[in-house]
Amino acid sequence: MNALLACEGLAAGYTRGRPVVRAFDLEVAPGEVIALLGPNGAGKTTLLLTLAGLLPGLGGTMALECREVRPGRARAVARSGLVLVPDDRALFTQLTVRDNLTLARRRRGSTVDDVLNFFPALRKRLKVAAGVLSGGEQQMLALGRALIQDPRVLLIDELSMGLAPVIVEELLPTVRRMAEVTGAAVVLVEQHVRLALELADRAVVLVHGETVLSGPASRLAADPGLLERAYLGERPPEPA
Ligand SMILES: Nc1ncnc2c1ncn2[C@@H]1O[C@H](COP(=O)(O)OP(=O)(O)OP(=O)(O)O)[C@@H](O)[C@H]1O
Ligand SMILES: [Mg+2]
Fold first, then answer.
1. For residue 181, what are the domain limits?
2. Which residue's CA is the closest to the ligand 1 atom numbered 8?
């Protein structure tokens, strides 16, 4: 595969010698959407924080376009194109929508208008403080703020947190379009498993920090029992 992001034997966690996620392998192609699934406490957020450079790696390697990325160096990692949309969205709530976007903007990079093409609903809200937006609008802004950084890999933690399912159903196709139009790969952590599998090309299921299942999203969607057993920690038999 022509991998954009490659992780090999990655260990992630908070205390040296006690990794939360172990032996994580993943190769992601440009424009590909990966659903990262698993029960509460499986290590999904820990893994995304590590991929975004916000936690020091505890072992293994990660590379972006074959160039090694050193976890724990958040600014350098973000500059290299791994951009996180955290589960709390981390907006500047007192600042306007426009300021939230322009502060994240890179010189000669995407513009506010580029972002508004993906999220036209924000056009009328540019002068409003981010804190008074609706939950769905805030999530659009969080995605827009990631987009304006011209990500190579977009790491999205629980887009649906606190949002009504109907709003999530509206937002997720935009994530797909972002991947298609910009060529960025997306790693999407999502509790709405059905919606995530509809959107993703492939899925990876983490349980207790280990990958217990991975494969085409369509295969997992077609066999809910497979996913259910994986959540219970049962590994499927190796194909013969
Ligand atoms: N700051 C921290 N310091 C130490 N341990 C932590 C910290 N944050 C999380 N953990 C532990 O790491 C493990 C994985 O947590 P993580 O938040 O990555 O899971 P998750 O899969 O994102 O769960 P959820 O679906 O609930 O968001 C848990 O056992 C948790 O207690
Ligand atoms: Mg989490």
1. 5-231
2. 46
Give the count of domains, the chain: 1
Structure tokens at 94: 């007192």
CA angle 195, 198, 203 (to 5 degrees): 95
Residue with the smallest CA separation from ligand 1 atom 2 is: 14
Residue partners of 136: CB distance under 8 A and separation at least 6: 163, 164, 167, 170, 171
Confidence of residue 231 (pLDDT cuts 50, 70, 90): confident
Whether 239 maps to a domain, the answer reads: no
Cα 64 to Cα 202: distance, rounded to the nearest angstrom: 19
If you average pLDDT over residues 47-64, what whole number do you get? 94
The answer to whether position 147 is within a domain reads: yes
In a domain, 237, yes or no: no
Pocket residue to mutate for ligand 1, from 44, 46, 191, 211, most atoms within 8 A of Cβ: 46
Please give all residues whose beta carbon lies within 6 A of any atom in ligand 1, as ranges: 14, 20, 38, 40-46
The CA angle 112-174-222, to the nearest 5 degrees, is 160
pTM over 0.85: yes
* 76: helix, strand or coil: helix
Within a domain: 73: yes
Q: In what order do the strands lie in the sheet with 185-189?
A: 82-85, 153-157, 185-189, 33-37, 202-207, 210-216
Rounded CA separation 206/217 (Å):
14
